[in-house]
Design brief:
With 141 residues, this protein is mainly alpha-helical. The chain is built from 7 helices and no strands. The chain has 2 domains: 71 residues; 64 residues, Orthogonal Bundle (Arc Repressor Mutant, subunit A), CATH 1.10.10.
């Protein structure tokens, strides 16, 4: 496998256009190939592993670029809306506030929220819908 390092590196460099990322992709692919048992055609397996690692790296770069772009833009209207939402959230009844926090801030599913609070799923859904309607009215959205 090491005899084909140049082939793997050339393929990775062509895709990634970065020497360090290409070397990392090849190293990961070689290690993956060496620990995989029963690979019938190690060259083909490793070349595909290099390509897959390169695609993963390109996706990660794209996501990081998108995050940097969105975080660099400060929208004063959005900031004001977030401030108002935070203020309104503090004025909610305790159960409604907890449901909003668990679902939207902590990312819990509605069934999990219901289970954690000892409420029925329909009760959680109803409370959340009523809370969203109240917030929309107060914020005139």
């Amino acid at each position: 496998m090491v005899d084909h390092y140049i082939d793997f590196y050339a393929a990775a460099l062509a895709m990634l256009k970065d020497e360090d990322d290409a070397k990392d992709a090849v190293q990961d692919a070689l290690v993956n190939t060496l620990v995989s048992h029963g690979v019938r055609e190690p060259y083909n397996y490793c070349m595909q592993a290099v390509r897959n690692r390169c695609v993963d790296t390109l996706r990660r770069r794209s996501l990081l670029g998108q995050l940097e772009e969105t975080s660099a833009v400060v929208d004063p209207d959005r900031e004001e809306l977030l401030r108002l939402l935070k203020k309104q959230k503090e004025e909610l009844p305790p159960t409604a506030r907890t449901i909003v926090e668990l679902h939207y801030e902590e990312g819990h599913s509605l069934p999990k929220v219901a289970s954690e609070l000892g409420l029925s799923l329909s009760s959680v859904k109803r409370t959340l819908a009523e809370t969203k309607n109240e917030l929309r009215k107060k914020l005139e959205i």
